[in-house]
Amino acid sequence: MELETRLNESRPASPGTLRPGGRTAKVRRAVLDATLDALAKSGFHALNMDRIAASAGVGKTTVYRRWTSPTGLVGDLLHDMAEQSLPAADTGTLAGDLRANAELVRATLTDPRMGAVFRAVIAAAACDEECARALAGFYRTRLAEWTPAVAKGAARGEVPAGTDPVELLRAVSAPLYYRFAVTHEELTADVAERAATAALAAARDGVFVRE
Prior knowledge:
Layout: H1 2-10, H2 22-42, H3 49-56, H4 60-67, H5 70-84, H6 94-110, H7 112-125, H8 129-155, H9 165-183, H10 189-204
Helix pairs in contact: 2-3, 2-5, 2-7, 3-4, 5-8, 6-8, 6-9, 6-10, 7-8, 8-9, 9-10
DNA-binding region: 48-67
Protein name: TetR/AcrR family transcriptional regulator
Organism: Streptomyces wedmorensis
C-alpha cells in the first residue's frame, strides 16, 4: 500500500485532482462549491473560469493553474462527488440493498440542486470527451462502492454465483436515468421500486451471470 501511494504521488495529476491539506484544501473546496453552484444555476456551457474564481474568492491565476479549463473543474467536482457520496447500504438482503441503491439514485436526481448538476454534466458529456471520461469515472467509483452488496447476495444464495455486480447495478439505475435524461418523466418512489425489483428478478434468472 505504501508503495502504491508513493507511485501515485509521483505521477502527474489531472487538473485539480491533488488531495491537498490546509489552505489549499480550503481553496479547492471553495472552487468546487462554486462550480457546483454554477452548474446547477446555468449549466456547463455557461461555466466561466473567471466567474468561478470570483465566486470562490480565489485568484484567477490559481484557478487557471490548477484546473486549466471548465472541463478540469467538472472532472474534479465529479471526483469529489464520488468520494463524498453516501456509502453502500447493508440491509442484510440483496433486495433491500438494491432498493436502497435505486432510492439513492432517485433522491439524487430529483433533488432540485443535484438534479440540475447531473443534467448539466450529462449534457456536457454528450459533446465533450473530457467530460465524458470524468462522468464515466464517477460512475465507476460509485459502482465499485456497491459491488460488495451483490457479492454478499450471491454468497447468501439470493442470486446465482458468477452474477456480474456491475451489470446488475446498471440495470437498477438505467430506467431511472432514462426517465431523467431522455423522456423527462417523473421519478417516483414506485419507479425506483420497480427498477430494483425487475433487476433482481433478471439476476435470479441468470441474466447477469458472466459467461
